[in-house]
Design goal:
Number of strands: 12
Radius of gyration: 36 Å
Oligomer: single chain
Strand content: 15-25%
Largest sheet: 6 strands, mixed
C-alpha cells in the first residue's frame, strides 16, 4: 500500500503535457492535461478559421468596391473639406469675423479697402481696429511697440483669407486678387549655413525679386537693420525705388530714419507714388508718459522711443538714463513722433 501511494504523484505528473504559449513555445514549469491541450488546439484552429474567413470577406468587399474607389476617394476628400469649412465658419462667427468681398478678375483696380481690420490672434473686443485704403507703396515709420508689425501681419492675413474665400478679422473689406504673398520679418543667423542675420535678410530680398510681381502683396518689416544704419538705409531706399518701378503693392516698415534724409537728397530716386504712414502715439511732454493707440495715421515718425521700450523691458534705469544723456549730448534728444 505504501509503495502504491508513493507511485501516485508520479503517475499523475506523467499524465500531464508540457504547456506552450500561442506560438508553440514551451512554458517552463507549467503543465496541462491532454484534454486541455486538445481544447487549446481546437481554439487556435477556430481563431485561424475566423481570421481566414474575415480575410475572404474583406477581399470580397475590396473586389466589390474597386470600381468605385475614385468616387470613394473624392467623397472622402469633400467630406474632409466640408468638415474643415464648417469648423472655420463656426469659429469665425464666434470670433466676429466677416466674409470679405473680392474684386472681379478683370478689375484693374489694385486698392485694398478694409474697414475695421484687427490682428487675427486677438479677440474682436480686445483689439484696436484700423480702416484704410491701401494702394501702391507705403513707407511705415513708428515707435517701437506701436503696432506696425501687428498691422502688417493682420492685413496680409485678411487679404490671404479673402482670396481663399474664407472669413477674415474685418468688419468689411474689398480685396484685390493677389498672385502671391510675401511677408518679411525679423531674421536670425544660421551658423550651420555660414549665414549672418543680414545675409538672411538679403536672401529674403533675392526671393522677393525673383518671385513677386505687380499683382503680389508685399510686407517688409525691419529690413536692413542687420548692418550699419548708413548702408541699411541706402539699401532700403534702393529697394523702395525697385518696388515703385514695378508698381508693386508693398508696405516697408523701418526704424532707419536716415532713409528720409536719403529720400530728400539730390541723388534720391523720384517716387511720386510713395506715401508716408505712421502709427498714432501720444507722448505727454511734462511726464514723458507714452500712450499707444495702435491706429494707422499719415505722417513720419522721427523718434522710435527706444528708451521707453527699454524701460518697459526692465532695463536698469542707470543704463537708460545714461543713454538719454548721451543722446542729449549728441544733439539727438528724444522727441515725440511727428505727424
Amino acid at each position: 500500500d505504501a509503495a502504491s501511494a508513493s507511485d501516485a504523484p508520479a503517475a499523475s505528473t506523467s499524465a500531464l503535457l508540457p504547456a506552450t504559449d500561442r506560438f508553440g513555445k514551451r512554458l517552463e514549469g507549467r503543465h496541462v492535461s491532454a484534454r486541455m491541450s486538445e481544447a487549446r488546439l481546437r481554439y487556435l484552429a477556430a481563431c485561424a478559421g475566423v481570421e481566414e474567413a474575415a480575410r475572404r470577406e474583406m477581399q470580397a468587399l475590396c473586389d466589390t468596391l474597386s470600381e468605385s474607389l475614385p468616387l470613394l476617394a473624392a467623397a472622402a476628400h469633400w467630406a474632409l473639406l466640408y468638415s474643415t469649412l464648417s469648423a472655420h465658419v463656426g469659429a469665425s462667427l464666434q470670433k466676429g469675423w466677416t466674409l470679405p468681398r473680392l474684386r472681379e478678375v478683370e478689375d484693374g483696380e489694385r486698392a485694398l479697402r478694409v474697414e475695421g481690420v484687427w490682428p487675427y490672434w486677438l479677440s474682436a473686443d480686445g483689439a484696436a481696429r484700423n480702416s484704410f485704403e491701401w494702394r501702391g507703396l507705403w513707407l511705415l515709420t513708428a515707435p517701437n511697440m506701436a503696432g506696425k508689425s501687428s498691422l502688417m501681419r493682420g492685413t496680409l492675413a485678411a487679404a490671404l483669407l479673402a482670396n481663399a474665400g474664407l472669413y477674415a478679422p474685418v468688419d468689411d473689406a474689398l480685396v484685390p486678387r493677389y498672385d502671391g504673398y510675401f511677408l518679411r520679418t525679423a531674421s536670425y543667423d544660421v551658423p550651420s549655413e555660414g549665414r549672418s542675420s543680414f545675409a538672411q535678410e538679403m536672401d529674403d530680398v533675392a526671393v522677393l525679386a525673383a518671385e513677386c510681381g505687380a499683382r503680389s502683396l508685399v510686407m517688409l518689416d525691419e529690413l536692413g537693420r542687420g548692418t550699419s544704419a548708413r548702408e541699411g538705409s541706402a539699401l532700403g531706399v534702393s529697394l523702395l525705388a525697385w518696388l515703385h518701378e514695378r508698381r508693386m503693392s508693398a508696405i516697408f516698415a523701418t526704424h532707419l530714419h536716415e532713409m528720409e534724409a536719403l529720400l530728400s537728397s539730390p541723388a534720391a530716386p523720384s517716387l511720386p507714388g510713395l506715401a508716408r504712414k505712421t502709427m498714432d502715439v501720444s507722448v505727454d511732454d511734462a511726464t514723458g508718459k507714452v500712450e499707444f493707440h495702435f491706429t494707422l495715421a499719415d505722417g513720419v515718425c522721427t523718434d522710435s522711443l527706444a528708451l521707453h521700450a527699454a524701460r518697459v523691458a526692465g532695463v536698469p534705469d542707470a543704463i537708460v538714463s545714461r543713454a538719454a544723456a548721451l543722446l542729449a549730448a549728441g544733439g539727438a534728444a528724444p522727441s515725440r513722433p511727428a505727424a
